[in-house]
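Hey, quick one: can you model this chain's 3D structure?
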Amino acid sequence: MSEIQVTEPRRGRPRIAGVDERILDVTLELLARVGYDAMSIAAVAAEAGVTKPTLYRRWESKEDLVTSAVSTLAATGPVASTSNVWDDLVGELESFHRAISRPEGMALVGNVLALEHRHPTLIELYRRKVASVRRSRIRSVLLQAQQLGAVAADADVETVINMMIGYYYSARVGGTPIDAEWPRRCVQLVRASIEDKRQT
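Sure thing. Here's the predicted structure for all 200 residues.
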């Protein structure tokens, strides 16, 4: 696996309220619409209503821009921590839903996966800055639940994470309607299999 280089922001880079967010949103929209190869810095600048120099003052290259845009889909804020581990897991899945269900969310994931062999750095960045962040949050909740005795000590945490996140992708690909209650239904199914029965 090649080493990922993340460009650090340059000091003194001018900022205008809302411009960065608009550029990043446009970048995600174009990635979903035309794909990485067909997307250009000029097109991003035009759709965002800025000049190319304005964009280049913020991001040094197309890859730098795409990396920053993709990272906005990562989970933000503290990991949920309440007195109910199952509510915490529902909260994490609701947060995941908000990120992935944005108009370009699923299309972006598909585009990134399609680039795995031609642009391996991009998918590595996606896995490290988006997918791994989400998985780490869910893992943190499950491991804490094991320590508290709410989840069985022998529960396969990594498989549980795959099942929870995969629930959404499977439904989308299969054409099953996704409503606001799917996180709770998913957690209820998981709970039935991993809850420490000694606590019930």
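One thing worth noting: The first helix runs from residue 19 to 34.
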